[in-house]
Amino acid sequence: MAEGKFDYQSFSQEQEGLDFGKMKKCPYCSKPIPEDAISCYYCGKLIDDNDSARPAWFVWTAIILVVSFFLFFLLFL
Ligand SMILES: [Zn+2]
What we know:
Elements: H1 8-18, E1 23-25, E2 32-34, H2 49-76
The chain binds zinc ion.
């Protein structure tokens, strides 16, 4: 194996073997895939659980900031 070249195929296969203990179900094909997999090995679809959770708290933080800003003006003007 050439060390200078990054072989993604063997890297992902190694990861699959290492993370076999903690598995989750693919939301698209219901096959078992590693917990930290970014795409399904079976159907090839992207699994972005973390990306869908991130905008939720960002939106709530924005709402809370805007509401507190309005409350501040209502109370002091
Ligand atoms: Zn799948």
